[in-house]
């Protein structure tokens, strides 16, 4: 594979860009692998890459039912941050942000990570006090955090609704190292880097069954034939329950909901940061892409579904939130919207853990946080699979925490269990 560099770009420019090789191979499935990762999204590709790079393992495959980045990896609002307070999440997401900061160099691929700041608007003294508590905890444990007063916020983001807002703005909680990245570029970068280390990436290879024997997974039945595996990792987001049932493991403490994302027509430069607005039942976040489109989203659709399309009530709700905080968007046209299938755990925190089957490992329950977690998720999931034990940073991300009453709750991320659903 060609190593990308300024010189390779200039050189291929003289040939009309005709001499680039393909970014990764398209191999036929082998009959068996030492490790098979099910799911060719960001978490699955990152896991395969770190298995090969950090642990020197060979004979690894990633199986994906569609195309790379066709699931949640390409259906999100691309926000990266580490402003978490709870011990189980704080160190994990900070490690992920540090990996993001070097990811383009690490993968030799521009993932377009832009550290443009994450600004959470504050609307009451109580909200400011809560943010100060949260952000002081972050600062004491090595994560950057600031509280801006109203004058500072006006200077940095002058066109918010400061005059006639239903919920007056009094300041903001800010993480300057946070920002956005290009979601499909992250998928392509991890795929290309993993392929160079010998990982087989098998697209259009849907898992249709799981064969188990004596408490172990023996093989995976796929649309491209049976594949035997020494170890298997599930990293399939909202479809985790389906695979879990294929493995005859019963039910998981997760629900599959859909989360919509939106993009407007391109505009001139308007918003340099990620802005988050949440008060009075509203939940809204917005940034501007490199192409000029306003990228934004809000709450879940709040009913269980495997659909990858949205519904109109949420479109209205999110657009109302947008115009309440940025009235200048009132006449901007919505270009498109889509939905990802979210695997929502009951406490809003993920699973990176072993399962009741000896050689099966689980990566799931990412709720709203899957995109920004991708590098650290792959890092720690690879470590778990390679060493058959969790790193201390993620040992709390297990299935037993609900039975033990040890939830990791950042509030506002997990669904309310619908006992009648």
N to C succession of SSEs: HEHEEHHEHEHEEHEEEEHEEEEHEEEHH
Report the portion of residues in β strands: 25-35%
Termini Cα gap: 50 Å
How many helices?
11
User: What is the helix fraction of residues, given as a range?
Assistant: 25-40%
What is the structural class? alpha/beta
Note poorly predicted spans. none
Average pLDDT over all residues: 92
Radius of gyration: 22 Å
Largest sheet: 8 strands, mixed
Shape: globular
Number of separate strands: 18
Q: What oligomeric state do the depicted chains represent?
A: single chain
Task: Compose a concise summary of this entry.
This protein is of the alpha/beta class. It is built from 11 helices and 18 strands.
Give the secondary structure arrangement, pairings included:
Blueprint: H1 6-13, E1 32-38, H2 42-55, E2 60-63, E3 79-80, H3 87-101, H4 103-107, E4 118-122, H5 125-140, E5 146-149, H6 150-156, E6 171-175, E7 179-180, H7 183-196, E8 200-202, E9 207-213, E10 216-222, E11 225-234, H8 240-246, E12 254-264, E13 274-277, E14 284-288, E15 294-304, H9 312-325, E16 334-345, E17 351-354, E18 360-364, H10 370-387, H11 401-404
Parallel strand pairs: 1-2, 1-11, 2-8, 4-13, 11-18
Antiparallel strand pairs: 3-7, 4-6, 5-6, 9-10, 10-11, 12-15, 12-16, 13-14, 14-15, 17-18
Helix pairs in contact: 2-7, 2-10, 3-10
């Amino acid at each position: 594979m060609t190593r990308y560099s300024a010189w390779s770009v200039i050189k291929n420019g003289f040939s009309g860009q005709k001499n680039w090789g393909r970014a990764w191979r398209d191999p036929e499935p082998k009959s068996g692998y030492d490790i098979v990762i099910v799911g060719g999204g960001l978490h699955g590709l990152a896991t395969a890459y770190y298995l090969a790079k950090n642990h020197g393992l060979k004979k690894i495959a990633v199986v994906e039912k569609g195309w790379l980045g066709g699931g949640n990896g390409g259906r999100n609002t691309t926000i990266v941050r580490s402003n978490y307070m709870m011990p189980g999440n704080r160190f994990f997401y900070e490690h992920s942000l540090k990996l993001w900061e070097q990811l383009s160099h690490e993968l030799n691929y521009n993932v377009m990570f832009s550290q443009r700041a994450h600004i959470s608007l504050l609307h009451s003294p109580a909200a400011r006090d809560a943010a100060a508590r949260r952000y002081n905890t972050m600062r004491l444990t090595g994560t950057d955090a600031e509280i801006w007063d109203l004058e500072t916020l006006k200077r940095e983001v002058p066109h918010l609704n400061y005059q006639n807002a239903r919920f007056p703005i009094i300041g903001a909680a800010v993480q300057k190292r946070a920002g956005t990245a290009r979601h499909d570029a992250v998928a392509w970068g991890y795929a290309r880097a993993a392929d160079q280390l010998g990982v087989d990436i098998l697209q259009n290879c849907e898992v249709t069954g799981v064969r188990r024997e004596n408490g172990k997974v023996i093989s995976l039945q796929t649309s491209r034939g049976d594949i035997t595996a020494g170890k298997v990792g599930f990293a399939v987001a909202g479809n985790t329950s389906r695979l879990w049932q294929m493995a005859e493991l019963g039910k998981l403490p997760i629900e599959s909901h859909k989360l919509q994302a939106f993009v407007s027509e391109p505009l001139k430069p308007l918003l340099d940061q990620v802005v988050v607005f949440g008060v009075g039942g509203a939940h809204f976040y917005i940034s501007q892409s490199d192409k000029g489109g306003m990228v934004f989203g809000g709450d879940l659709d709040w009913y269980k579904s495997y659909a990858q399309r949205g519904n109109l009530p949420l479109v209205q709700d999110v657009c109302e939130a947008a115009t309440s905080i940025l009235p200048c968007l009132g006449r901007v046209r919505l270009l498109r919207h889509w939905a990802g299938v979210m695997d929502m755990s009951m406490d809003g925190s993920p699973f990176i853990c072993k399962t009741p089957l000896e050689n099966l490992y689980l990566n799931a329950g990412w709720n709203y946080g899957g995109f920004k977690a991708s590098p650290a998720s792959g890092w720690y999931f690879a470590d778990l699979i390679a060493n058959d034990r969790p790193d201390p940073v993620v040992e709390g991300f297990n299935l037993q925490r609900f039975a033990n009453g040890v939830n990791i709750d950042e509030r506002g991320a997990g669904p309310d269990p619908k006992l009648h659903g």
